[in-house]
Amino acid sequence: MGRVQGKVAFITGAARGQGRSHAVRLAEEGADIIAVDICRDVESVRYAMATPEDLEETVRLVEKQGRRIVAAQADVREPAQLRAALERGIAELGRLDIVVAQAGIAPMKGNPPLQGWADVVDINLAGSVNAVHAALPHLSEGASIIVTGSTAALMNVIAEDPGADPGGTGYQFSKRAVAEYVHELARVLASRSIRANVVHPTNTNTPMLQSEPMYQSFRKDLEHPTLEDALPAFPAMQAMPIPWVEPVDISNAVLFLASDEARYITGMQLRVDGGGYLKSHDFQR
């Protein structure tokens, strides 16, 4: 028996990166999957987004584990699209036990810049809320909600040049707001024995990180930095001497929170950050 055997997980942003990794890891441990992704570019985001072919690959990898999957192209900014995808998945798979609100963007130096702010708040914050709210009517005792935050949400950073990068500052704001939302959500759901937690990754080896806009955020002195240029700066985010973690490192945390091993864990801000939090915070009681 797997650690989430017989459960059904609803995952947003599932076409690639962390979302795909979560889908495959949960499938390895016995879950069936309802997978959604926008599968098209967002104008203010300067790196390529997932494609329909990426979502098809997620389907293939889940089915390779012998699990069922219902996949749909859906925009987390559109609640009706999420409800339709979720209801189709539940009709086929029979239930819903796990929600993983993973979809997110990082429109660093987005163009137009204010659209970057709007898009990152709409997708990272409102999109996470939309996914959870679409799922709530279908959840019962023992269900688990997991939302992706970021180490950026926990850092004490003061903008050196306010308004210069609305997409970048919007990313940090959206993740902080997600963390507070889940804290309050966990209070609301605790009496129903439904759990809600946040996972905060540090740099994670996905297409979002491996992109010129992200390289530029670490090497502001260069106009077109490469991975080779940015690599020495990546360990600055962590206390451990590593440039990044792998998607499966986050997936293992998601799996734990989704499983009955975490049946009494709720309202947690779980950091998978290589000690990044330790670099900017004293001990908190």
TrEMBL record:
Gene Ontology molecular function: oxidoreductase activity, acting on the CH-OH group of donors, NAD or NADP as acceptor
Gene3D superfamilies with a match to the protein in the record: NAD(P)-binding Rossmann-like Domain
Keywords linked to the UniProt accession: NAD, Oxidoreductase
InterPro entries found in the cross-reference section: NAD(P)-bd_dom_sf (IPR036291), SDR_fam (IPR002347), SDR_subfam_1 (IPR023985)
Superkingdom to which the source organism belongs: Bacteria
Cross-referenced Pfam families: adh_short_C2 (PF13561)
Family recorded in the similarity comment: Belongs to the short-chain dehydrogenases/reductases (SDR) family.
Protein's name according to its UniProt entry: SDR family mycofactocin-dependent oxidoreductase
Lineage of producing organism: Bacteria, Bacillati, Actinomycetota, Actinomycetes, Pseudonocardiales
